[in-house]
Structure formats: C-alpha cells, structure tokens
Amino acid sequence: MSSTITKPRGWMWGRVATKITLISVFFVVALGAIIWFTAEAVNAQENDARIIQFVGRQRMLQKQHVIEVLLLMQGKTTRAALDETRALWRDTQDKLINGGEVQVRMGSTERTRIPAAADPVLLSRLEKQRDNIEEAIKKADALLKLAPESPEYAVVLQELQELDEVMQALGSENAHGFTQLLLDKINDLVDAEVTIGIIVSAAGFLFGWIISREISKPLQQVVRSAQAIAEGNLRIDKLNLDRADEVGMLGEAFDHMLDNLKGLSGQIAGVTENVNSATAEILASTQQQAASTREQAATVQEVTTTMQEITQSGTEITDRVKQVAASAEAASTASSSGIAAVQNTNRLMENVRQQVEEVALKIVSLSEKTQVIGEIINTVNDIAEQSNLLALNASIEAASAGEQGSRFSVVAGEMRNLAERAKESTVQVSSILSDIQKGINSSVMLAEEAVKRSESGKHQSEVAEKTIHQMMQTTVDSINAFQQIIGATSQQQIGFDQVAQGMRDIRMAAEQNAVGTGQLEQALSNLNVLSSQLRLAVSRYQV
C-alpha cells in the first residue's frame, strides 16, 4: 500500500530517522563548539603561563645582574656577559609591556610571541619596573667606575642594594598580579563552560522533547483507535495524520484498514442475511420435497397392493376380466399421478441444487474477503515489527550516546511497547478471522455435500419416473391384451410378478429419496446455524 503524502513542510515534516539524526547532529555541533572554546581558552592560558614565567625570569635576571656586576668588579666575568644579561633583561621587560617576540632562554635563538599587558595596574607596575631596571643599570655602571676603597663606593652599593630590594618586591607583586589574572581567567572560563553546558543541555532537552512529542502524540492516537477497533467499535473517526514521515504513513495505512474493515463488516452482514434467506427458502423447498416423496411412496404402496391382488386372482382372471380391466385403468391413472409427482420432485431437486450452489458461491466470496482482511492484518503486523525494529535501533543509538541519550532511550522503549501492543491486537484479529474462515470452510463443505445429495435425489427421481413409465406402458399393454388373457394366463402371471417387483424397487427408491431429503434438511439447518454464528461474530464490530 503506497502512501500519498508528498507535502514536506519544513524539518518537522521529515522522516523519523531524520529527526533523530538531527538530535545527534545538534549535540555533536554543540560538543564541537565547547571543545573549540576550551581549546582557545587553553591557548590563552598557555600565553598567560608564559608571561608569568617571563615575569619570574625577570627577578632571576635582576639577581644575576647584581651578581655579575660584583663578579666583574672582581674580574671573574666579562663585560660581554653582563651586557648580554642586561639586553635580555631590558628586551623581556619591553615585550611584557608592549608585546612581541621574546627570547625563550639565555643562549638560545628560540623566540616566542607574548601579548601586551592589558590590565592597567599591571601595565603601570611593569613600566615602573622598567624605570627601576634602567636606574639599577645606571647605578651598577657608576659602581663599576668606583674603586672599592672610594668613599662613594659604599654609598652607591647601598643604594643599589636598596633598589634591588624595591625591585624584588615590585617583581613579586607583578608575579602575584599575573598569577591572580590567570586565576580570574580560569574562573571565567569555568563559569562560561558551565553556562554553555547548561544552555546546550536545556536546548537539547527542549529539542528532544519537541521531536518526541511529534512522534509520540500521533502514535497515541493510533493506539487509542486500535484499542477501539479491538473492542469492536468501527464508528471511530479517521486519524487523518497530515504528515510525510513514517508515522504519517502508518496513520494513512490505519485509515485504509479502518475503511476496509467497515466495508467488509457491512458486506459480511449483507451476505449473512442473504444466506439466512436462501437457507430458509431451500429448507421450505426441501420440506415440500419430503412431503412429495411421502406421497410418492404411498402411491407406490397402493400400486403394489393392487398388483398383488391381481396376482392372487390370476386363477379367476377369465371370470373377472371386467374387474381386472377396471383395476388396470386404476393402475394407469395411479402411474400418471406417480409420473407427475416424480417430475415435480425433479424440478424441486433442481431448484434445491441451484440454490445451494448460489449459497456456496456467496460463501466462497465471503472466504475471499476474509482472506483480504488477513492480508491487511499481516500488513499492519509488518509495520508494527518495523516500528519495533526502529525502536530497537533507536535504543541502541541512545545507549551509545551515553547519559545524553537516556531520555530518548525511554521514548524508544515506549515506541517498542506500542509496536508490540499493535502486534498483539493484530494477532487477536487474525485469530477471530481464522475462526470465521473455519466456519466458512465448513459451510462450503456442507453446501457441496448438499449439491451432491440433490443431484443424487434427482437421479433417483429420474429412475422412478422411468420405472413408472414402464409400469404404465405395461398396464396399457395389459388392457389391450385382456381379450387374450384366457389363453395367456401363465404369461400374464409372470408379467404381474415383474410389475410387483418393479413397484417394490420404486418404493425403495422413494424411501432412499426421503432419507436424502432428510439429510439435505439437516445440512441446511447446520448452514443456518453457521450463518447465525458468523452474523454474531460480525455484530461485535459496530459500523
């Protein structure tokens, strides 16, 4: 059965599989966005971590600068080493303020890019530290120009040490400030990811709820209608699910099934009424045939008695020629009546046979329609099994989705339960149709047996008619030969014996015909009972 729904109206009109796929795509895209956001945040944190590393290295370079100044005064290092330390010290401080590429470590050509300081407080501290670096370099150069025994040497050295302490404290504040800034960014990142997760979860729940409602609501309508049909109510309205997905196809198939059940129920009721009417007519004809058969048997009995009397009076046949002639004429008249009765019986038997054949044809037509119902039930059963398989696949997909697919797993389970209940309903309807089919098959067999009985009765009637014709001809010949009776008494006696035997045969045939008529009457009664049972079974469905 093909679907006629060809009106897609947006994504909500797509197939169920497409809607389920959209849920997965939504969560994949959301997860990708969260991963991208996290990756960008991690890269930013790496830059902040490198800045904290360079801030710490500035404190180390400050100490190294003081140590190298003292070593240079003692002649234990070179001016080039001191200048290299100063260059790295100044360059790193400048890049911390303005941003740019900075040398990763001393003695290495590897460089990395860091951003400029954005926080105003940290920027102010870094600029102050840069001024302190320049001041420290000036004081160190002044100290290098003085001799250790010079009076100014101790003063400059003291100033350099005090400046070093100030710079150490300021460097510690810078390191703490950058560390706190990094912690604030991490907290902001965590808050942002939690917010995004909540938004994505809420959107996913709403999206899944909308799709599940789009699927479950029409399925609930199908279930309610199927339950009403199972209870025998065919007066329900059509579903009319204006959808292009599998649920819409199921609803359209269900509407077609409802129309077919209504039509079939009405047809079965009409056929049942016709069968009852035809059965009553055939039964009446059969009863008339039985009465005619009894009359035929009585007539044959009378003819037999008469022939016996003729046989007994054979020795006096000469003296009673007139009496024998009168008896022969009475026998001829009785034979004519017997022929008329047999011909009437033949006509009645032919009518019975034709009516039984019509009943058989109607029952066969009824059987074919019940088979069509069975095919429709099989189609609904196949759809239920496919729905069950789709629900099972959906459960598997939901299980693979983990916690995010748990809600959809419940929906898939409900779909599978609905499919199983629809399948159980089709099994119950199939069982009822099977019982109806069995009753119809029994009716067909009884009708065929009735046809055979009718044909057999007709054949026996034809034999009886032929025999009566022969008897009548014999009686006429007897009347014409009355003038020769005296000379042919012996031969006439033999002829009377043959006639008596023929009468006995006719009586037996009439009795057999009566038995066949009784069997046909019983078969018609059984057919009437089966028709009533079929009408009772169909009456469960209210059209």
UniProtKB/TrEMBL annotation:
<feature type="coiled-coil region">
    <location>
        <begin position="342"/>
        <end position="369"/>
    </location>
</feature>
<feature type="domain" description="HAMP">
    <location>
        <begin position="213"/>
        <end position="266"/>
    </location>
</feature>
<dbReference type="InterPro" id="IPR003660">
    <property type="entry name" value="HAMP_dom"/>
</dbReference>
<dbReference type="GO" id="GO:0007165">
    <property type="term" value="P:signal transduction"/>
</dbReference>
<dbReference type="Pfam" id="PF00672">
    <property type="entry name" value="HAMP"/>
</dbReference>
<keyword id="KW-0472">Membrane</keyword>
<feature type="transmembrane region" description="Helical">
    <location>
        <begin position="20"/>
        <end position="39"/>
    </location>
</feature>
<comment type="similarity">
    <text>Belongs to the methyl-accepting chemotaxis (MCP) protein family.</text>
</comment>
<dbReference type="GO" id="GO:0016020">
    <property type="term" value="C:membrane"/>
</dbReference>
<keyword id="KW-0812">Transmembrane</keyword>
<dbReference type="InterPro" id="IPR004090">
    <property type="entry name" value="Chemotax_Me-accpt_rcpt"/>
</dbReference>
<feature type="domain" description="Methyl-accepting transducer">
    <location>
        <begin position="271"/>
        <end position="507"/>
    </location>
</feature>
<dbReference type="InterPro" id="IPR004089">
    <property type="entry name" value="MCPsignal_dom"/>
</dbReference>
<dbReference type="Pfam" id="PF00015">
    <property type="entry name" value="MCPsignal"/>
</dbReference>
<keyword id="KW-1133">Transmembrane helix</keyword>
<dbReference type="GO" id="GO:0006935">
    <property type="term" value="P:chemotaxis"/>
</dbReference>
<dbReference type="GO" id="GO:0004888">
    <property type="term" value="F:transmembrane signaling receptor activity"/>
</dbReference>
<keyword id="KW-0175">Coiled coil</keyword>
<protein>
    <submittedName>
        <fullName>HAMP domain-containing protein</fullName>
    </submittedName>
</protein>
<keyword id="KW-0807">Transducer</keyword>
